[in-house]
Amino acid sequence: MRRDPRFDILFEPVRIGPVTAPNRFYQVPHCNGMGHQYPSSMAEMRGVKAEGGWGVVNTEECEITHTSELTSAIECRLWDDSDIPVLAKMVERVHAHGSLAGIEPAHLGAGAANTYSREIPMGPAARPIDLHEPVHARAMDKADIKAFRQMHVDAAIRSKKAGFDIVYVYAGHDMTTLMHFLQADRNDRSDEYGGSLENRVRLLREVIEDTKDAIGDTCAVAVRLAVDEMLGARGISCDAEGRDIVEMLAELPDLWDVNVSGWENDSATSRFTDEGYQTDYVSFVKQVTTKPVVGVGRFTSPDTMVSLVKNGVLDLIGAARPSIADPFLPKKIDEGRVEDIRECIGCNICVSGDFLGAPMRCTQNPTMGEEWRKGWHPERIAPKTADETVLIVGGGPAGLEAARALGQRGYDVTLAEGRGVLGGRVHIESQLPGLTQWRRVADYREYQISQMANVAVYLNSPLSADQALEFGADHIVLATGSDWDTTGIGRSNRRAIDGHDAGSVLSVDAICAGQSPTGPVLIFDDDYYYMAGVLAEKLRADGHDVTYVTPTADVSHWTHNTMEQARIQTRLMEMGVEIVPLHNLTGIRSGHVELSCVYTDVVKKVDCASVIPVTMRNPKQDLFWALRDRASSLTRIGDCDAPGTIAAAVYAGHRFARELGEPEVSGVPFKRELPALAVD
Ligand code: ADP
Ligand code: SF4
């Protein structure tokens, strides 16, 4: 198939200083938890994006010196020449597909604790560092500034040696020294680098000029700038200093990569923002520069992309998450297969890898991070090894992905779903406030399956063990999901809570199914991810008095890893949800509950008519036990094996499909990247 001519504009080349991007698809720098620790994984992942049609593929932020390092986050490094080959490998993978490779050298200053190198951080002023660690940064003196400029020059020269086409100067995300100098509330210097905006911009201007002098003959120099901190008059804003900075430096860089900061605003989730949420902030940039402009906004719709270019908002369509969820997004548009795009759902599971010090995972793309170590390609999969049939019971994320990937391999697949609709938990949860886009997990797979003659779907088909056996399939896969527990057992209570069997307890599943609680509601969050917060929001919006109790210090505690926690807590507080942190639920009585302080065990009573424990889920395994001794090939996948994230369920479905009929691997089932033992 050929692409729709209305998308032709997206495939025009764009000149960026001395280099030319082959099209307008631009993978902006993004963290991935691989970096210096898993460099082959990083190189292969970036190469797959180039193969998928991204005309520019960038690294994540790249530490340019051991005196500013982000341990325990795993970023790439250019501390000295010994790091060059590692990055050259990525460049080689990207160039192999005709794309440009870009690098984002970064000095984190007061954003890094230097826990590995033990060097003293430095920044514009003597202040505690941003991370909650007992570390202060020292104020940079003139010698420090000279050394700082030289670090950027050295990094630029090393980047060029590694083969990069685009080298960044990075003043974004409230995270780098170059941005810290711009910020009036961080930079209270009285020398020529502080005070007036012109003075605060001086260091950024010098570093851009230094970089251009060093490598600008063959490499494009891009500036990544946060044009709005979303703090109104308290910070840099696109109506004031953000605009002024771009005007002052307008023609200096070869490319403007503009966004909002901090990172939690730049990578906001779909629960709080829609596609294109940054456009209003960055649209002024093209009016004040003739240089190409790239911006982001979780763009997955080619029509939106076209309108951004045609309306003079952006020249290049920037993407981090859409390129993670679908590395082949550009190719699919090019080949007239727009409906095959696996759209990002805006959940930020990918981001959590950075906080957890682990390679990135993606809810939509189970191959993300597995390209090198398992050889998984997002679009290709080995054909079936035998003419066998597979029955999958359950059409949630696990069952759907197993059906899709097995279907792609050529197996004859039957998918039986008890409900009248596919999607399992994503179908249900996508009806909760803010989670509409999560439905894309099911939509993508449902459409793919609908195109496969070898995959049959039966809805309204809750199977018993006998019925499952009657299909006579060679393999039975159970993807039957899980139910929320109502006893209160979980992390904080190892035994059922006293009174849990009283009539006032309602399950999460009942609320999701539309049941309305009576009277004031108490939600007990011992789960810490999104569910309790979303339910509190829903029930409060429905007009209930809601009390939210959790043993942690803040609501939805794990969502710090998806950068949503502050927004969730703000929303609940603004809606009037009563929050009781640092308390365990220890007793459920008629008309009230007993809460126990997690430190002192002091008990207090809170009145409520209904209680919703959000503590744990029980895998639905009745079918498994009924079939265990009767089916010749029986496998549990996803939540019915062990409840987890949607990403984990999709991965489990994909993994089953990949491994069916393949020789069993003994030992570690993936390639490892071992640190080389130093020669003493
Ligand atoms: P996962 O996240 O592991 O995919 P879900 O809970 O999202 O799990 O999906 C499980 C799906 O399995 C649900 O849609 C549910 O209706 C379906 N299901 C559970 N038991 C049966 C059964 N015996 N027969 C058919 N479908 C079932
Ligand atoms: Fe998008 Fe979620 Fe995948 Fe991140 S993990 S790329 S937010 S679908």
From TrEMBL:
<dbReference type="InterPro" id="IPR037348">
    <property type="entry name" value="TMADH/DMDH_FMN-bd"/>
</dbReference>
<dbReference type="GO" id="GO:0051536">
    <property type="term" value="F:iron-sulfur cluster binding"/>
</dbReference>
<dbReference type="Pfam" id="PF07992">
    <property type="entry name" value="Pyr_redox_2"/>
</dbReference>
<keyword id="KW-0408">Iron</keyword>
<dbReference type="GO" id="GO:0046872">
    <property type="term" value="F:metal ion binding"/>
</dbReference>
<keyword id="KW-0285">Flavoprotein</keyword>
<dbReference type="InterPro" id="IPR054428">
    <property type="entry name" value="TMADH/DMDH/HD_second_a-b"/>
</dbReference>
<keyword id="KW-0411">Iron-sulfur</keyword>
<dbReference type="GO" id="GO:0010181">
    <property type="term" value="F:FMN binding"/>
</dbReference>
<dbReference type="InterPro" id="IPR051793">
    <property type="entry name" value="NADH:flavin_oxidoreductase"/>
</dbReference>
<dbReference type="InterPro" id="IPR013785">
    <property type="entry name" value="Aldolase_TIM"/>
</dbReference>
<feature type="domain" description="NADH:flavin oxidoreductase/NADH oxidase N-terminal">
    <location>
        <begin position="10"/>
        <end position="338"/>
    </location>
</feature>
<dbReference type="Pfam" id="PF00724">
    <property type="entry name" value="Oxidored_FMN"/>
</dbReference>
<dbReference type="InterPro" id="IPR036188">
    <property type="entry name" value="FAD/NAD-bd_sf"/>
</dbReference>
<keyword id="KW-0479">Metal-binding</keyword>
<protein>
    <submittedName>
        <fullName>FAD-dependent oxidoreductase</fullName>
    </submittedName>
</protein>
<keyword id="KW-0288">FMN</keyword>
<dbReference type="Pfam" id="PF22620">
    <property type="entry name" value="OYE-like_second_a-b"/>
</dbReference>
<feature type="domain" description="TMADH/DMDH/HD second alpha/beta">
    <location>
        <begin position="510"/>
        <end position="605"/>
    </location>
</feature>
<dbReference type="InterPro" id="IPR023753">
    <property type="entry name" value="FAD/NAD-binding_dom"/>
</dbReference>
<dbReference type="InterPro" id="IPR001155">
    <property type="entry name" value="OxRdtase_FMN_N"/>
</dbReference>
<comment type="similarity">
    <text>In the N-terminal section; belongs to the NADH:flavin oxidoreductase/NADH oxidase family.</text>
</comment>
<dbReference type="GO" id="GO:0016491">
    <property type="term" value="F:oxidoreductase activity"/>
</dbReference>
<feature type="domain" description="FAD/NAD(P)-binding">
    <location>
        <begin position="389"/>
        <end position="489"/>
    </location>
</feature>
<keyword id="KW-0560">Oxidoreductase</keyword>
